[in-house]
């Protein structure tokens, strides 16, 4: 019941922008969730309370470029664990590992500092939204290249019709999302 209440509460602060960035796309804009301090706190607390559970508690939070940085850094701070950014290629100054993944048209590459996590670290991977799942799966593979265990992928929004959440679960990544926009 509580999850449904949080889901409904947060849903009303997610703005739908029609036909952006292309005609026919219903863009789910999470920025209104961040603008109101009470709403932002409810959002962050929903993640923090889940990951305070010893069975799910991470050693590190990894955030995906760029909105995953906003969420991940605050969640890591509240859990008193470290935060590592997974960036678009060419943005990190030190030695990196990289993972390329397919987009609808072309591909993209994300990077992580080679010393960002240690073998055996339990990592929470976080982003704002799951669409096709490509970025989150690339993040999972990067962390695993360094020997970390990705305990869960977390996001505010799931767009299940795009198939990403199913692909991620099929790829061995448990997921936790707060708002589902199936059929909306």
TrEMBL record:
This enzyme catalyses: AMP + diphosphate = 5-phospho-alpha-D-ribose 1-diphosphate + adenine
GO terms for molecular function, please? Answer: adenine binding; adenine phosphoribosyltransferase activity; AMP binding
Phosphoribosyltransferase domain span: 33-161
- A biological process from GO: purine ribonucleoside salvage
Tell me its EC number(s), please.
2.4.2.7
Q: Which residues form a coiled coil?
A: none
Q: What is its main location?
A: cytoplasm
Record's GO cellular component, any one? cytoplasm
Keywords from UniProt, A to Z, are: Cytoplasm, Glycosyltransferase, Purine salvage, Transferase
Similarity field? Belongs to the purine/pyrimidine phosphoribosyltransferase family.
Tell me, in a sentence or two, what this protein's role is: Catalyzes a salvage reaction resulting in the formation of AMP, that is energically less costly than de novo synthesis.
Protein name, UniProt field: Adenine phosphoribosyltransferase
User: What organism is this sequence from?
Assistant: Comamonas antarctica
